[in-house]
Amino acid sequence: xxALRRLNDPKIxxxxxxxxxxxxxxxxxxxxxxxxxxRSVLDGQFGFLHxxxxxxxxxxVVIVGIDEDSYRAFKEPFALWHPYLGKFLxxxxxxxxxxxGLDIVLPERSYEFLIPQYDQSLLQGLQTARAQTPLVLAQTxxxxxxxxxxxEPIVAASGGDTLASVMVCADxxxxxxxxxxxxxxxxxxxxxxxxxxxxxxxxxxxxxGLVDFGAGQPFEYIPFARVLEWQAQGNAGQLKSIFGGxxxxxxxxxxxxxRVNSPVPLAxxxxxxxxxxxxxxxxxxxxxxxxxxxxxxxxxxAGLALALLATLFWLxxxxxxxxxxxxxxPLLLVSASTWLLAQGIYLxxxxxxLSGLFSFLARLAYEGVLQVQQRKWxxxxxxxxxxxxxxxxxxxxxxxxxxxxxxxxxxxxxxHIHGFSERSEKCPPQEIIALLNDxxxxxxxxxxxxxGTVDKFVGDGVMxxxxxxxxxxxxxxxxxxxxxxxxxxxxxxxxxLQEQGVAPIEIGIxxxxxxxxxxxxxxxxxxxxxxxxxAVSLTANLERLTKTLKYxxxxxxxxxxxxxxxxxxxxxxxxxxxxxxxxxxxxxxxxLATI
Length: 595
What we know:
It is a single chain. The chain is built from 22 helices and 20 strands. The chain is an alpha/beta fold. It has 3 domains: 18-50 and 296-382, no CATH class; 56-290, no CATH class; 400-594, Nucleotide cyclase, GGDEF domain (Alpha-Beta Plaits, 2-Layer Sandwich), CATH 3.30.70. Strands 13, 14, 15, 16, 17, 18, 19 and 20 form an 8-stranded mixed sheet that branches. A 6-stranded parallel sheet has the order 4-3-2-8-1-7, sandwiched between helices. The protein has a two-stranded antiparallel ribbon with strand order 5-6. β14 and β15 (461-466) form a beta hairpin.
């Protein structure tokens, strides 16, 4: 019971809700939903930086692409392109690039058994090129996951320790975003192609992390066949101007070559496709090393701390200001994290966004439950006091309930059945209860129809007031109309009593206007919306004059003045009420005489 009582404390509930939000933030930080959102946002940020904020490189990577035209120009199978690769390497010897990477499948055996001295053109090209520029050869992976061997004389001709892996390691969703050799088991030993190329570049910053997709513009490529044309023409100036002092990558750009999934389209010749040739992702990794280095990820605790901070959306009532903050929150967060990404720091914001949204929705749901409970409570509180129309207005917030208590000018109505005590002594209990239920039902309808509030039933008495919780232009007028309606409905009750062979009833109604304290009073187990004050007790005593003055309705001068003595009110002079002289008026509703 004590625990339940403490849970009813709003402060305890708010603290409990904050704890739930903090726990949710922690779980969201390690959830797959957060990771998926992180990737989606990161890809969008990469796309923005690549398109609008790409930073150029002074010594950008040059790609020589083996395209479909190259395959058509040379009739031999690619495995027998020794002469053409040899000429390409001779062209590189003339151009003197900073480093040359061959991202192609190199022969694993000699082909001199087919054509004597066939390997010599490639071997001589390697030896000539290596004398002018460092070479790095790609080591590809077989279907079984092992590295494909390269013919040893080719490795020796290139300078010896020149083999490096070109195996890229995709994230769980198949998209390449990271450069980290350890993500692929096959790369556990040895270097990566771009790492080995970076060793020969003075301004390169090798390392692991996220690939910087904001480095450089979309890639163009120099066709392989065109390089051979320049070499055949002896066009040293063209070769030097394009390749001199720059890192060069030779790779397959034809649709038939290996392709990988990239978060951004890197090929200028295919600007909408995210599935790109593998050589382009290698080039982008090398670009990252030539720029500011790989993008490093922020400390895991920083993201978690911000996710926990986002739970502050639980605090404070939901309103337009908080809703505006919710809309501004992701915009500011995405903008800040995009700026950090451009500075080389990656801050995952998925868990932060989800934590803020969860906390906001949790508070919204909490307030919704409270509102439902309050509406249910208001319905239970006022359902039997006021009409359905007034109840709907209270529930909609258009009428202040006044539950906290207020001093309001109201018109109070008190009604009793004449001679009811004697009747209850003589009649069976079932008959008395049935009579009262029928009578009170009719009186309630009459009071509600004229926007009155039923205060209580005491024995055979009815207490009601007009002017609260719904403010009325003239509560006295409503009260008089309700009194007339009550007398009309008593006729209906008497008609039913006559059918049952039961004596009819006669009632007296008193009205008085004045200030009263209106509020919700009682214990935690039972409360009433009631009126308190001298005006209430005065009205109850005023009702006794209906017998002596022979009027079904009597009212005070305050009521008569409010309605300007309209409707045939009769001045009965001053009468002693609670030993206090009170000017009283009697009323026979004219409508009763016409029916």
